[in-house]
Specification:
mainly beta, 11-stranded mixed β-sheet, 10-stranded antiparallel β-sheet, globular
């Protein structure tokens, strides 16, 4: 599981007022490193894959030994942002090294076909008097970057995306707060021998055109198993769009690769409320995995916080889209004045081409605390990526309250799933669907299909929920000796009784 504390605090760091400086500093650019075009990072990644993996040097021990509280006592002064005071419509902040980020990330600015490095400079940060003395030497570099733009008001640059830690990145639609994360690549997730975490080791920022809502970011990925070149075309808005083009170069045969991985947190909801003594009715960044498979079927899989590691694979051919969603959007759904889970985005992934045969994979890890990410989803191709080969793919991520509508038509949404015991034994499962003009007024024309991987289930009944206006499917499950079960429930229209 991934510790979320630092990632959760990124937005708040941007709001800390900076103390007065003796002089204005600003991010400093070094000399040109040569020409840059769309193939520069691809060529570098391809060359790296022909050589043994070489870990990057570590920053000084004094930075790596920072505690979480100490790390929060250093922050970037936004007056030093890249392109501050210019007509470029974006601003870029950087993050300090240390704590969970023991290796530097190289940053470059691309302008007129030439790349210049962003030099490390302690003067761009502010600290409190409680920040400890740390060693400054040539191994230091920034740990990541934050993108800001005029989202709601002219002259006010608000953040909308962050790239920091391994190959993690996050985004939000305008007015939202950070929740789940995406990654460049997942390797061996859930494997008994442990997971491999590739790193984005360098970023190149193309200077945006005046008036543009879009910025292009290139990233170099490296790990013991492979190297890779990524291109992100990022457009901010009420739904944030990230178009991704990636090419992987394998050092070894890769059998367990996760394409377009998402990482989230699910602690509890109405299906398992009895396991947690909490004043809140639910705690999660995402509550379900939505899939639009190659056959055109739309599948909603509610998330779970299992008692043991659980891995589910939904086999498919040419997926049309998938993503982790946050369906609950009212404050009362969570009753949390600090975490504001109802304002956290969903992410919908749309492949740019036919991804062939594979499986949308869902990994659910047990957790007792909301500070840990315990949910991972990704596309796992059926074919191996062989050593010495390259694998290219494109896809788009949409971040927002309901980003699925950008590319997929969901006939009837699932609003909520609840589960509870019966005095006479067994469990009642209730699934609420949204009101829709596709649902007939006469619910008796709806046929139910309920199946379970184990135990027995009743056929189920359909009734109208007076609060939502949509249908509710309820059925009884008798687990018998089962400790784990997967259900498949459908409402089928156009059937008369």
């Amino acid at each position: 599981m991934i510790r979320r504390d630092v990632l959760k605090s990124l937005a708040s760091l941007a709001l800390v007022p900076a103390a007065a400086w003796a002089k204005e500093s600003g991010l400093q650019l070094g000399d040109e490193t040569g020409g840059f075009n769309s193939d520069t990072v691809i060529r570098r990644a391809k060359e790296m894959a022909t050589q043994p993996f070489a870990p990057r040097p570590l920053i000084p021990q004094s930075w790596r030994d920072l505690t979480y509280d100490q790390y929060r006592k250093i922050w970037f002064d936004s007056r030093n942002a890249l392109w501050e005071g210019s007509d470029v419509p974006q601003r870029v902040d950087v993050f300090p090294p240390g704590l969970y980020f023991p290796q530097p990330v190289a940053l470059y600015v691309v302008d007129n076909g030439a790349a210049r490095p962003i030099a490390f400079d302690m003067a761009v940060f502010d600290t409190t008097d409680k920040f400890p003395d740390v060693k400054i030497d040539g191994t230091l570099g920034y740990s990541g970057l934050r993108l800001r733009a005029e989202l709601e008001k002219k002259g006010i640059f608000q953040e909308y995306a962050v790239f920091q830690g391994a190959s993690y990145f996050r985004g939000i639609g305008t007015g939202e707060i950070y929740g789940l994360s995406a990654r460049g690549l997942a390797l061996k997730t859930g494997d008994p021998m442990g997971e491999e975490f590739p790193d984005f080791t360098a970023f190149w920022l193309e200077t945006p055109q005046p008036g543009s809502d879009t910025i292009i970011l290139h990233a170099l990925l490296d790990s013991p198993s492979c190297s890779g070149a990524y291109r992100f075309e990022i457009t901010h808005g009420s739904v944030l769009e990230m178009k991704v083009a990636a090419t992987l170069f394998a050092r070894v045969d890769i059998s367990h690769v996760g394409i377009a991985p998402l990482t989230s947190m699910f602690l509890f909801d109405d299906t398992m409320r009895d396991r947690f003594s909490d004043f809140r009715p639910a705690v999660h960044d995402s509550d379900g995995l939505l899939m639009h498979n190659g056959a055109g079927e739309v599948i909603w899989r509610p998330l779970a916080n299992p008692k043991t590691l659980q891995i589910s694979a939904f086999s498919d051919m040419g997926p049309r889209g998938f993503g982790l969603c946050q369906r609950k959007r009212r404050f009362s759904d969570f009753n949390d004045l600090e975490a504001l889970y109802h304002d956290r985005p969903a992410v919908w992934i749309t492949p740019g081409e036919d991804w062939g045969r594979g499986a949308v994979t869902l990994v659910e890890i047990p957790t007792d605390l909301e500070i840990y990410d315990n949910i991972v989803s990704y596309w796992r191709p059926s074919d191996l990526i062989l050593a010495g080969s390259e694998h290219s793919m494109t896809y788009t991520l949409h971040w927002g309250a309901d980003p699925v509508a950008a590319t997929a038509d969901v006939p009837v949404k699932v609003l909520n799933t609840a589960m509870g015991g019966r005095p006479e034994g067994g469990q009642i499962i209730a699934i609420d669907f949204a009101a829709s003009d596709r649902v007939p007024q006469d619910l008796s024309t709806i046929e139910t299909l309920v199946r379970s991987s184990t135990g027995t289930v009743t056929p189920g009944i359909v009734q109208r929920n007076p609060e939502t206006g949509g249908p509710r499917l309820a059925f009884t499950f008798m687990p018998e000796d089962a400790t784990l079960a997967e259900f498949r429930a459908q409402l089928r229209l156009g059937v008369s009784h």
